[in-house]
Amino acid sequence: MQFDVIIIGGSFAGLAAALQLGRARRTVLVIDAGERRNRFASAAHGFLGRDGAAPGDIIAEATSQLARYVTVTTLKGSASKAGRTEEGFYVETRNDTFHGKRLIIAGGVVDTLPDIPGLADRWGTSIFHCPYCHGYELDRGPIGVLAAGALSMHHALMLPDWGPTTLLINDSFVPDDAQRSALAGRGVAVEEGRVRRIFGQRPTVELANGRTIEFAGIFTLSRTMGGPIAEQLGCDLKDGPLGKFIGVDEQQQTSVPKIFACGDVARATGSIALAVSDGSMAGVAAHRSLIS
Ligand code: FAD
Ligand code: MG
Predict the structure, then answer these.
(1) Residues with Cβ within 8 Å of residue 52, at least 6 apart in sequence
(2) What's this model's pTM, rounded to 2 decimal places?
(3) Which of 94, 154, 238, 288 could share a disulfide with 247, CB 3.0–4.6 Å?
């Protein structure tokens, strides 16, 4: 089957791209595996007009609005491979091969979490990475920053704006004198020991010496990774602080002509609002490129 545009990933970024293309009456196929990055969180914050909504509700509403556009087709499934053809691109799923003149990669990223017992179970409910998304709801209660290297200094220095903060070093780096005085300047307490596990409704950390500290919430850094398709197609990747992402210009154009990328997969750090913004741009830019 031939489409004007194939979009890999049908969440905030991919659906925003599809909306613009559908409104331009272009034929679009959105292939989505349904593994949104924030599926672990019951509420999403900071997205203007939908602050506090369940992320799944935002997607369900977007999907039903998109269904009005007759040229947009959505397919539940995973794009396993993509490559070039004379006219554009082919994309394979388990059972089919689809053709598109343009490709938009909007597959998001996968989080790799620090390997500590009890952490993954609490991801998105009491352990988070984004203070803007989940800091306010902690009501100025005590906050733990579980370090994943020196990059966590950034987290530790930010979080006192949301509550009294303790940096849990977890043997991940050794703060130097300048770092220690910066932490002290922001009133951040420092716990040196390794974290053995996290337990409890209010996330409670057990240190190697057996001592426990209870928090209203914990913040940590994940490593992020996009899918292999951009690399298969030869798109340039950039190094971000948390992982590689697809390099794009202001129009969300990748280094490969006719391939656009948007959302978390194409930025160093992301949010729903930014994914929607990038996706809208990618949809418009893909449309313009079909005309010129
Ligand atoms: P995603 O939403 O991750 O969607 C990518 C989609 O593409 C998925 O459905 C995936 O299955 C699909 N896909 C991937 N590869 C393929 C493939 N090969 N074939 C088919 N489909 C594929 N942001 C906020 O603004 N507010 C919040 O409160 C907030 N809370 C968060 C809580 C947690 C725990 C996490 C981890 C993130 C949170 N975020 C929040 C960030 C937000 O989730 C992301 O910025 C946003 O989801 C990015 O949208 P996206 O469309 O780029 O990617
Ligand atoms: Mg951009």
Answers:
(1) 43, 44, 45
(2) 0.97
(3) 238
